[in-house]
Amino acid sequence: MTIDNGHYYITTKNNALVVILRRQWDLVITKQFCVDCNQVISLKLSGRWAMYADLSHWCLMTDEACDAFYQYHKNCISQGLKYQALLLPKSALKRWRIKAYVSDTFQVKTFLAQQPSLAYHWICSKGYNISMQQQQIVTI
Asked: Are 79 and 112 in contact (CB under 8 A)?
């Protein structure tokens, strides 16, 4: 199952969630992403799973959207998320905000990268081969 609506791309590969987040999100888009992503997770992922997330061209626009996304991330952890490789934006402020969301205290191992190949190789090194060409990840 793959979802691509222009604001985000969601798919799964070998018990890993691959998401590409794009553009600016308000609360409506954030809530729709959460619904779509939950559907994909419940249908395609089980037990312990990993996530590759490209956040390099994405921005949350409102405090409400930030709060909803943070709650959603906690929900992913309760659904079995164990490893996450996050491709960060170039903006220092956006990187700081994203880092505030992620923490190893929830027993999720996180790798923050500025290059797609580093994030891709890290998630694969954890046993979750997302079986996509690096160029595919960059251009999705």
From this structure: no
- Could you give the CA distance from residue 115 to residue 80 in angstroms, rounded to a whole number? 26
Across the chain, which has 140 residues, the per-10-residue mean pLDDT values are 93 94 94 95 93 89 87 88 88 66 72 90 93 51
Please provide the size of the chain in residues: 140
Residue type, 83: Y
Q: HSE of 30 in the Cβ direction (CA atoms, 13 Å)?
A: 20
Q: Give this prediction's pTM.
A: 0.86
| Chain centroid to CA 104 | 16
CATH class of the 3-139 domain in this structure:
alpha beta
Query: What secondary structure does DSSP assign to the chain, as a single string?
Result: --EE-SSEEEEEETTEEEEEEEEEE-HHHHHHHHHHHHHHHHHH--SSEEEEEEEEEEEE-SHHHHHHHHHHHHHHHHTTEEEEEEE--S-HHHHHHHHHH--GGGT-EEEEESSHHHHHHHHHHTT------HHHHHH-
